[in-house]
Amino acid sequence: YCLSGDLAKPCYIITFKGLRIMLDCGLTEQTVLNFLPLPFVQSLKLSNLPNFVPSSDHDPQMDGELKECCGRVFVDSVPEFNLPMDKMLDFSELDVILISNYLNMLALPYITENTGFKGKVYATEPTLQIGRFFLEELVDYIEVSPKACTARLWKEKLHLLPSPLSEAFRAKKWRTIFSLKDVQGSLSKVTIMGYDEKLDILGAFIATPVSSGYCLGSSNWVLSTAHEKICYVSGSSTLTTHPRPINQSALKHADVLIMTGLTQAPTVNPDTKLGELCMNVALTIRNNGSALIPCYPSGVVYDLFECLTQNLENAGLNNVPMFFISPVADSSLAYSNILAEWLSSAKQNKVYVPDDPFPHAFYLRNSKLKHYNHVFSEGFSKDFRQPCVVFCGHPSLRFGDAVHFIEMWGNNPNNSIIFTEPDFPYLQVLAPFQPLAMKAFYCPIDTSLNYQQANKLIKELKPNVLVIPEAYTKPHPSAPNLFIEQPDKKIITFKCGEIIRLPLKRKLDRIYIASELAQKILAREVATGVSLSTLTGVLQVKDKVHCIQPCAETIKEEPSSSSGCQSSVPSKEDVLKNVKYEYGTIDVDALMKRLTQDGFSNIKMERNGGNLTLQLVNEDTTIKFEDNETHIICGGKPTTRLKLRDTLLKCLQSF
């Protein structure tokens, strides 16, 4: 089941062995671009924007809900988010949620809270902790700038509104941000796992997270049984950055490989864009301007601190202050330096020297990098000086401290804003602030798999079936030659709202035998290297685990005087225990001796080609021997046929 149309923020459900497993719960945040920014203090520019009035069918009650800026219409209300589709399957029926990385878990509070969810959630420790930072920051940013009222009527008039509002997908299902209580409640349901740890999921399969190389704690999931293997690859990277490298061997030879989360910037090289960012910051500083870099509280920002500091030092600009502003800045910076086991080997080796794995710990001690919760936090005004470099959120520029800096620096062409997060189209991000004098640069740094790397990885993994979003099989809009192409693989595609049947035919399952029953097994060799034994027991299925237990001993009651001497009916188990299975070839000479001993006389033997026939003249009976069968054709009494059958069976081995 595909519950999300956002390829970078996936949410899928697979039903397997009677279980409902959710793979990721990404939150589509692009919807916030339809709303006006939330400044910390009232913005004269934003409050003076004219109302938008539809050309026809105008509802006076809708006045004030929509504002117009430079030909674009925005909703003047609390930002809202597009949730994974909740009508395809009831969230209360979910058994398990598996999360691959902290960017793909921001819809978790919507799914686990106030929905009747009773299942379990699994993620690695960094995914849980850094995901907490993202969720807490999101709530803080929106709650610190509350709106007096919420606009709703505009959703009834979408057909009257200009693009892109008129094309809003499921606008009536959009929701405002969850509460901090919901965040804490959802995260309390998460169970922490380590890389390569094997977890039994209700006896149906073994779930194993393996390193995906994309960000701290990011993982691909392997779901395996004794006979099937499903791999879920989401947000992976084959580049060498600060996380632990991708584990490819664990993903090989899957029956089904589900792949998603490829790069959102397939036409650019992350290293090239990192170099461009450093160059643009240096040029801005030399022009006596300041640089604003909207960012998330973790991830690529760690690499930016390191690269940018070294670049500015090489350019002779080592006295330029850098500020990291986020409600969770302190926690994020501190936590990143205690995650040695989740880092690349180069970063791990620094821990054993001992040294800080990330250089930002050194920059903090030397005051090259300073962090604050908000621009209004104590001490910021005292330390703040320009020109400087500011890292702060939110990348959408609809809430957070970045809105304040745009208001403060926007009219100066010496200043610049540099976008590194590919989640939001930067021209749409800047739309409500236009006209804007400060320079804008787009340097998307996305280390997840590009199309060439994905095609190469798929060939190396050799899955039986590849399952990918339909969009990946079509040429990319900005690069017609980029798409997933695997001519030698069976590919199944899907899109948002679709339900597809995976070609996974379960033919075998593992059964466990109770030890006391196993001790009674007496194997009989029926051919070279082949042994057989019968087994009589009770098959129990509990939590998807099949087990054969011994039959319960039944106590035979003594017949009462009123019932006479009638024998009790044998149980089904008693009958089964007495069943014998014959095998081998019949020795005709031995059979004739037994027939003579049993009182049969006047026996004639005939050979017709390869077949042998015995004629019992007195009993008007024929016994025909063929390659794999023996026929008793009896024209006399039925008792004669039964007697002959028993004699014949005595000449065979049985078990």
Automatic annotation (TrEMBL):
<dbReference type="GO" id="GO:0160232">
    <property type="term" value="C:INTAC complex"/>
</dbReference>
<dbReference type="GO" id="GO:0005829">
    <property type="term" value="C:cytosol"/>
</dbReference>
<dbReference type="Pfam" id="PF21382">
    <property type="entry name" value="IntS9_C"/>
</dbReference>
<feature type="domain" description="Beta-Casp">
    <location>
        <begin position="301"/>
        <end position="430"/>
    </location>
</feature>
<dbReference type="InterPro" id="IPR027074">
    <property type="entry name" value="Integrator_9su"/>
</dbReference>
<dbReference type="InterPro" id="IPR036866">
    <property type="entry name" value="RibonucZ/Hydroxyglut_hydro"/>
</dbReference>
<dbReference type="GO" id="GO:0090287">
    <property type="term" value="P:regulation of cellular response to growth factor stimulus"/>
</dbReference>
<dbReference type="GO" id="GO:0090101">
    <property type="term" value="P:negative regulation of transmembrane receptor protein serine/threonine kinase signaling pathway"/>
</dbReference>
<dbReference type="InterPro" id="IPR001279">
    <property type="entry name" value="Metallo-B-lactamas"/>
</dbReference>
<dbReference type="Pfam" id="PF16661">
    <property type="entry name" value="Lactamase_B_6"/>
</dbReference>
<dbReference type="GO" id="GO:0160240">
    <property type="term" value="P:RNA polymerase II transcription initiation surveillance"/>
</dbReference>
<dbReference type="GO" id="GO:0034472">
    <property type="term" value="P:snRNA 3'-end processing"/>
</dbReference>
<dbReference type="GO" id="GO:0032039">
    <property type="term" value="C:integrator complex"/>
</dbReference>
<dbReference type="Pfam" id="PF10996">
    <property type="entry name" value="Beta-Casp"/>
</dbReference>
<protein>
    <recommendedName>
        <fullName>Integrator complex subunit 9</fullName>
    </recommendedName>
</protein>
<dbReference type="InterPro" id="IPR048660">
    <property type="entry name" value="IntS9-like_C"/>
</dbReference>
<comment type="similarity">
    <text>Belongs to the metallo-beta-lactamase superfamily. RNA-metabolizing metallo-beta-lactamase-like family. INTS9 subfamily.</text>
</comment>
<dbReference type="InterPro" id="IPR022712">
    <property type="entry name" value="Beta_Casp"/>
</dbReference>
<keyword id="KW-0539">Nucleus</keyword>
<keyword id="KW-0963">Cytoplasm</keyword>
